């Protein structure tokens, strides 16, 4: 039986998880189970949303930059890949991480627990800077611990001036 280990994933990866709030409001359409706001990956994203495909072991945004201000991500756990026996990856997250002045990462917002074929919206107010789109799920399988981030589920993303 697999057990997802979300607590401590940020510490293991060295991600500084700062609270979202103040000047960076977040709207998440999504949750943790049936009827919670997760949508089918087949649903059309809202106009202007950036589609971010999540699959073992990649994060694939339709574009790698956006202008500062309101940015809407459409996180989709892709259906076009198979999960090997005990390899993990049944659930993916999308974290938007901002690089800080000291080189560490700060959590700007996230969508959690997307099962295969599910999608969710993440609306953020982003300032110019360097970002990373990542999945920081850490799973325990019978073969050992699987870190999605360590397996390559991350990609750079840039926010330019408004």
TrEMBL record:
Span of the signal peptide: 1-18
Domain of life: Bacteria
Keyword Signal tagged: yes
Name assigned to this protein: EfeO-type cupredoxin-like domain-containing protein
InterPro entries referenced in this protein's UniProt entry, alphabetically: Cupredoxin
Keywords for the protein's UniProt record, in alphabetical order: Signal
